[in-house]
């Protein structure tokens, strides 16, 4: 049985003081849970969060990484730097990075390989624009992103990768994909993993939905068999909202 994985994506939000307050409140309110929870924070918050949340079972992740170990890449952060901080996850290929920061299928692939080499679990984002969906090409578009992202990954690395299906038209818009639309794509992605690898990888890999997930719609989305979690932007900025989403996830035990 796959564990449900709820990951907050703070994006460019929360100063150090705000991150500290969030971590204290989260620790105080964290319920007993069978599900996994993590927060993907700005680089500047990571040293504090890895210490503040150590021993709680709550994971800490970054939102981007460079694919080289070190070198002349002004302004960049390497997988080794993240590993030394005790970071467990890293988002790769978020649509905002693909759109505003020239992230390509090739850099996404290199980052996945570099993160696996460093022992950090990537959360790779895929998803189509409204234009692509309306043209009826959503699945072929996502299939292309997945095939490129997983190029050269071993079955073990693939199974340890988290995929976040985030339709661009649902991110930060308040427009959620219906549970049926999200399930259709997540099921398609799982089928693709079986084709690229095998049934074991397909069964094991965690596929999240992201895009305006909130306490009121999380239960229906997470009840779908191929949706194993959520990548939560706006609703992850408040402890109560993030925990309400965690609580909305179906109990498996
Ligand atoms: P949202 O963002 O929940 O604010 O739509 C999701 C994401 O971009 O990861």
SSE topology:
Blueprint lengths: L4 E5 L6 H14 L6 E5 L5 H7 L6 E4 L16 H7 L3 E4 L2 H6 L4 H14 L2 E6 L3 H5 L3 H12 L5 H6 L1 E4 L13 H18 L2 H6 L1 E5 L4 H8 L6 E4 L6 H10 L5
Parallel strand pairs: 1-2, 1-8, 2-3, 3-4, 4-5, 5-6, 6-7, 7-8
Helix pairs in contact: 7-9, 11-12
Describe the structure.
This protein has 253 residues and is an alpha/beta fold. The protein contains twelve helices and eight strands. The chain has helices at 16-29, 46-52, 79-85, 95-100, 105-118, 130-134, 138-149, 155-160, 179-196, 199-204, 215-222, 239-248, and strands at residues 5-9, 36-40, 59-62, 89-92, 121-126, 162-165, 206-210, 229-232. Strands 1-2-3-4-5-6-7-8 form an eight-stranded parallel barrel, surrounded by six helices. Helix 7 (138-149) crosses helix 9 and helix 11 (215-222) packs parallel to helix 12 (239-248). It is globular and about 45 Å long. 43% of the residues are buried. 2-phosphoglycolic acid (PGA) binds next to strand 8.
Which parts are unreliable, with pLDDT below 50 for 5 consecutive residues or more? none
Distance between the termini: 10 Å
Strand order of the largest sheet: 1-2-3-4-5-6-7-8
Q: What's the shape?
A: globular
Structure class: alpha/beta
Number of helices: 12
Average of per-residue pLDDT values: 97
Q: What is the H/E order?
A: EHEHEHEHHEHHHEHHEHEH
